[in-house]
Design a protein that fits this description.
Layout: E1 16-22, H1 26-37, E2 41-47, H2 51-59, E3 65-67, H3 70-73, E4 79-82, H4 89-96, E5 105-108, H5 114-121, E6 129-131, E7 133-135, E8 156-159, H6 167-179, E9 183-186, H7 189-215, H8 230-235, H9 243-252, H10 254-276, H11 280-300
Helix pairs in contact: 4-5, 7-10
């Protein structure tokens, strides 16, 4: 059976006639821009709950058309990208399967992979293909107006194939992210979730906790948030991210995140003990070690 999006033998290029983006926000909207700019799709349809956001997507030229009816929207699509909060991905895929044509490929952009991929693979039919994906890119802003063409350039994109994954469909999705400028990495889904718990999920949890801890200080009888300077604002920038999305991430990647919280608590407790003991030398070594790690990220331009 011919699969949608297979590379042309003559040109080596990837092309999908019709693509549906479910969730035309920062990630979905930016990917739609790539598909259009690179000529990867002839027709892009935006699907979502918010009519104003969909109207904006059409006005900005991010999508060709839009609908709030997900089942109607995916009809005749070669590729469906599910770019919604991670807790909704499984149900969306389950709902759209009866309306997809044979050979269609579904992929997602969720930051939790094991729970999502395992459940979806349990009900996927033979003639439709699913590839778990996660572009390591984003900002604290949401909505299609936050989308931009170069969001994925020089960023990693992790794909999590399993023994059941169709190789041609995998190559097609890999080609899409490479066209977006991403470095594509194939990874076991358990490893993905552990890594993301450490470098993404834990920082968000800590940022939310820090903002709330400071906001809850009542002993100074004034709103001390108004005194925030660069340090507090830079560190807590990601606390402006979607509460819905991060609630879902914490619930679905619960085990790995709890493990990282325990590790963080141990490190923080060690620093607390050093401060209590006035151990300046110990604190200096810990701060110096952290600075070296952080500076190495800057030198390598990681995340820039």
């Amino acid at each position: 059976m011919k699969k949608s999006g297979v590379r042309s033998q003559e040109s080596g290029e990837i092309h999908f006639n019709k693509v549906a983006i479910i969730g035309v926000g920062l990630i979905g909207g930016s990917l739609a821009m790539v598909l259009r700019q690179k000529g990867i799709s002839s027709q892009i349809i935006g699907i979502g709950r918010g009519i104003k956001n969909l109207e904006t997507a059409k006005k900005l030229g991010v999508v060709d058309s839009y609908t709030q009816d997900v089942k109607q929207g995916v009809k005749d699509c070669d590729l469906v990208v599910v770019a919604t909060p991670v807790a909704s991905i499984v149900n969306i895929v389950k709902d759209i399967l009866p309306f997809l044509k044979n050979g269609a490929i579904i992929t997602d952009v969720g930051s939790v992979k094991k729970a999502v991929v395992d459940e979806i693979e349990g009900f996927m039919p033979e003639k439709v293909f699913f590839i778990g994906g996660h572009p390591i890119a984003g900002t604290e802003n949401a909505g299609v107006e936050a989308a931009f063409l170069t969001l994925f350039q020089s960023r990693k994109c992790i794909l999590t194939p399993t023994k059941k994954t169709d190789k041609i469909a995998l190559e097609s999705i890999k080609a899409v992210w490479e066209a977006a400028g991403s470095q594509v990495i194939l990874m076991e889904r358990e490893r993905h979730d552990k890594i993301l718990a450490s470098v993404s999920h834990l920082p968000h949890v800590v940022a939310y906790a820090l903002v709330n801890a400071v906001a809850d200080m009542k002993d100074l009888d004034e709103n001390i948030i108004t005194y925030s300077a660069g340090g507090f604002k830079d560190f807590t920038r990601i606390a402006s991210s979607s509460p819905e999305m991060w609630r879902d991430v914490c619930l679905l990647n619960r085990g790995a995140i709890l493990d990282m919280i325990k590790r963080f608590q141990a490190t923080l407790s060690q620093l607390k003990r050093m401060i209590e003991a006035e151990d300046g030398e110990g604190m200096y070594k810990e701060f110096e070690r952290a600075k070296e790690v952080r500076d190495s990220l800057k030198a390598a331009k990681v995340g820039e």
